[in-house]
Amino acid sequence: MNYRKKAILMVVALFCLNIAMLAQAVSLKMNNVSVKEAMTQLKNKSGYSFVYKVGDLDTKKIVSVKAKQLNEAIDQILYGQDVVYEVKGKNIVVQKGQRQNTSKDTKKRKITGVVNDANGEPIIGATIKEKGTANGTASDLDAKFSLEVSPGAVLEISYIGYQTQEVKVGDRTSLSVTLAENQQILDEVVVVGYGTTSRKNLTTSIATVKTEKISKAATSNISGMLLGRAAGLQATVSSPQPGGGINISIRGGGTPIYVVDGVVMPSGSFEVGTGSTSLPSSVNRAGLAGLNPNDIESIEILKDASAAIYGIGAADGVILVTTKKGKEGKPTIVYEGSYSIQKHYPYLEVLSGPELMNMVNVFSKENYLYDKGQYPYGNTAYDDKWTPIFTPTQIANAPTTDWLDKVLKTGAVTNHNLTISGGSEKFKYYLGVNYYKEDATVHNSDMERYSLRTNITSQLTNFLKLTTIVNLNQNNYTNSTVGGDVGNLGDQGAGALFGAIFYPSYLPIYDAEGKYNVFSRTPNPVSMHDINDKSEQSGYYMNFSLDVDIIKNMLSAKVLYGLNKENTSRDSYIPSDVYYALQRKSRGNLGYGKRQQSTLEGTLTFQHKFGELLDMNLMAGMGRYLDSGDGSDISYENANDHIQGSSVGMADGPFYPTSYKYKNEKRSQFVRGNFDLLGRYVVSASLRRDGTDKFFPSKKYALFPSVSLAWKMNEESFIKNISWINMLKLRASYGETGSDNLGTTLYGIVTTTREDVQFNNNSVTYIPYILSGANYEDVTWQKTVMKNIGLDFSVLRDRIWGSVDVFRNDVTHLLGTAPTELLGMHGTRPINGGHYKRTGVDVSLNSLNLQTHDFKWTSQITLSHYNAVWIERMPNYDYQKYQKRKNEPMNAFYYYKTTGIINVDKSNMPESQRSLGPAACMPGYPIVEDKNGDGIIDVNDSYMDNTLPKLYFGFGNTFTWKNFDLDIFMYGQLGVKKWNDAYGNSIDVGGLSRGVDAHNVGIYSYNIWNTQTNTNGRFPGIAISKSVALPENLGFDYTRENASYIRVRNITLGYNLGPKELSVFKGYIRGIRVFVDFQNPLTFTKYKGYDPEINTSSSNLTGGQYPQMRVYSIGAKLTF
């Protein structure tokens, strides 16, 4: 009996041991590989070897494997093979023979079917398995499958990145299966610098933006796809004009670098100026203008030490762009087209002709009373001698010209995309063609782009792979006179929109002679339609990479060469009948420029897994990067109006030619190591050495190290058995990056008037600093130190997942300039100094809220907060009395708080107001708060605001019901104040008092204090227009408003037809999607200005910026 018990116990123990071996953890993911390759990978991952007789196993069969346990991996590798196996030690013994069928009825029947995704796209290589058996197969190049199954069988259909689906066969002989995308992203591949990794093994803070669900109907560039989409990334519109720029910032830094398919690309637009024409020189367009958003697969944002591997320029973060590529299968042709209507947001409501005349009369009289010292501005009674500027008859008969209506219009966008992709195991291809045309809401403002992109992957041999990417583009622009930088010209160089709100509404467009009316120094807004300002930008980009498998699955090498070349030209012309910049004469500018960047990199990668102890990946590389460019332009005057544009040869002159040329080189060496210990602890470290010719030889090179750690806490025994925690990972990182932000070179140029170095008839001459004489060897790299602690989590069966990050970035040795003299000449020299820090929090949260057979609801939330504080300012900084030397917000704004308006009898004026002088004590003047109560208004009474928002956020919801899908995405900022630039024009009481020279104003002018119609006005009266210098020239707060906003960016409703609904087309049409999209339909804000988001710093004018737009789109997508 004892022997029997011992024997039973031994059998049970051996059985349990075998089960334990089969159930041991092993992470294996492969797509469309041979059985032989899969067996090799399993051996490398787990140490288990397959033992079998030749002929018993088809090792060339293609399979896909996604397994976390050993038995799962073995079953998937042996799918569809007439074999059984047994694990003996570290050997998996495979023998010919069928597995035992537990079904009472062993009669099998054939099932056929097709597997597609939710968009009707075929899924090639999907695994179809009879549940509970090793019987299975994979979908072929047409996404079709055929399998013999037992009666009552249940099929399990799975594919990487999609939810596994179980289907009861029943009496059916054919199936159409649609796999839903897996919301859980822990196993997804994430692109990092010089490689990829799985999200669950990430040790740094990287945000991913998937582009397939982002509406691109009226989106012309990549920047427009990032608004609110990632935690830690701040994106705000700087100009909504065609191709307009969007300010992109990562954690409050400067402009990040863009890496497209492994190659660093210019982040800014390439534009030619307008010479001496006085037209806006910069149109402030977005970078990467030649890249079609429809060609983008995914975008990764490197926010912390993960950016250090890129060294120079990565101090402000890195945006990695991965473009689409071909997949194995028959050709897939996709056409997507849309048509959009643009409507501008409500602009400033200005006064009609009669209303303006009445308003001018009111404030002309106020000015008369003030200047004469008559009541209430003095003790003298009104003498009744003021004469109205406009008589009642003039007011009654005054016309109204709607200047804004002449400048603004309804816009339209046409967008066509055609892609062809497919391939075999050894050759894959992708071709994308795009035509985009935008005729925007402002006259003389449009964009047209043609682009073509190819991505071809060729498996030349079993160890050599060549990838070729080519992008061609041609962009044509018509430039309006709004949204640009007008320098110091003020209203004389104002754009059409500024003129439209500035020009008196009673003034006709044309005078009695049929010429354009001119008011004050401002150009007639309608006349600007005649200005011809066109730009052309063309470019080509080539990326060649050669991957070499030196030792299969262990040692590989890669050589990458990238070339980006851009050409741009601009032809600007102002006809002689257009009054602009105080001139009425024909003039123009013809310019061109070109720039070229080339990248040559080589990397060597070693990877190996030492059982369950260590999974190691080592990479070393080097690179050489060249950046060069040149350009020239010529301005001319007195040209022939009948030959507008490029009429230099027909001009009488004078002529003003300029030119430039530059060339820079950078060399780098870099290494990185990733170590996964015991499947629980991940360590990553990198070191990059950069050298640039911008610095002197002694400071030419710099080292940028980084290290990051991750602890997969859910793999620990004390958490592993907590069922509601699916993933919990703690991260920490430290990294250093640098900047060589010195323009094109450290060797600056200075102007001189010394006779011994003058040439060319005593003209001003530019000479270079002399290396031996310019002792700037102390100038070195600007340095950024990045620290981050983060937590990644997934709970409740992966229904809620996300991350939280806390960071601090310290920027030291800032690069700036200081005055200097060299060889007796005045100029500036570069210097280092200063220190500031940026601190903040990023939160990303995703959830699967509800899922039934027909309905699904998911949500995404991103939250970001950061602050920037000076630790120490630059050594040559000119401090103001109200500023702190240390620990002051970088975005500080100082002002005096007002508590009301001095009334007619001054009964509400405090004694402290008298310290500002008599002019500040007049009725209608703002009452300044005595903050410290000392009875004197001085700089100690000033307030400070931090102009940064307290919170950036994005919030999206996606609903799917049967064939419908609805996506709603919104973003915004909270806790921020801005100047209301609309007030600046509307409450210009000084302008209103100029009589016939008074410009038009907005309806806010009815809130100006005055003695005749509004003694309870919110805004100051005529007294504010008189010269009163406040202490330290600080301003008031009465035009600052809460600029928090919530903007609904997109509402997209779509209806999808898949292969099942389209079976009548017999596979020729595999998918149809029709959709409508509403962009910027709603904005919730208390801000009364033009727009709470648009960055107005690009213009020195009060108002007149390009209007925000609502866009209504309809489109269709067809898959063949």
UniProtKB/TrEMBL annotation:
Pfam families: CarbopepD_reg_2, Plug
Source species, domain of life: Bacteria
A GO term from the CC aspect: cell outer membrane
Domain TonB-dependent receptor plug: 200-318
InterPro entries: Beta-barrel_TonB_sf, CarboxyPept-like_regulatory, Plug_dom, Plug_dom_sf, TonB-dep_OMP_SusC/RagA, TonB-dep_OMP_SusC/RagA_CS, TonB-dep_rcpt-like
Gene3D superfamilies named among the record's database cross-references: Carboxypeptidase-like, regulatory domain, TonB-dependent receptor, beta-barrel domain, TonB-dependent receptor, plug domain
GO molecular function, one term: siderophore uptake transmembrane transporter activity
Single GO BP term: siderophore transmembrane transport
Chief site of localization: membrane
Subcellular localization, as worded in the UniProt entry: Cell outer membrane
Membrane-related topology note: Multi-pass membrane protein
Keywords: Cell outer membrane, Membrane, Receptor, Signal, Transmembrane, Transmembrane beta strand, Transport
Signal sequence extent: 1-25
Protein family according to the UniProt entry: Belongs to the TonB-dependent receptor family.
Name under which the protein is recorded: SusC/RagA family TonB-linked outer membrane protein
Natural source organism: Bacteroides xylanisolvens
Lineage summary: Bacteria, Pseudomonadati, Bacteroidota, Bacteroidia, Bacteroidales
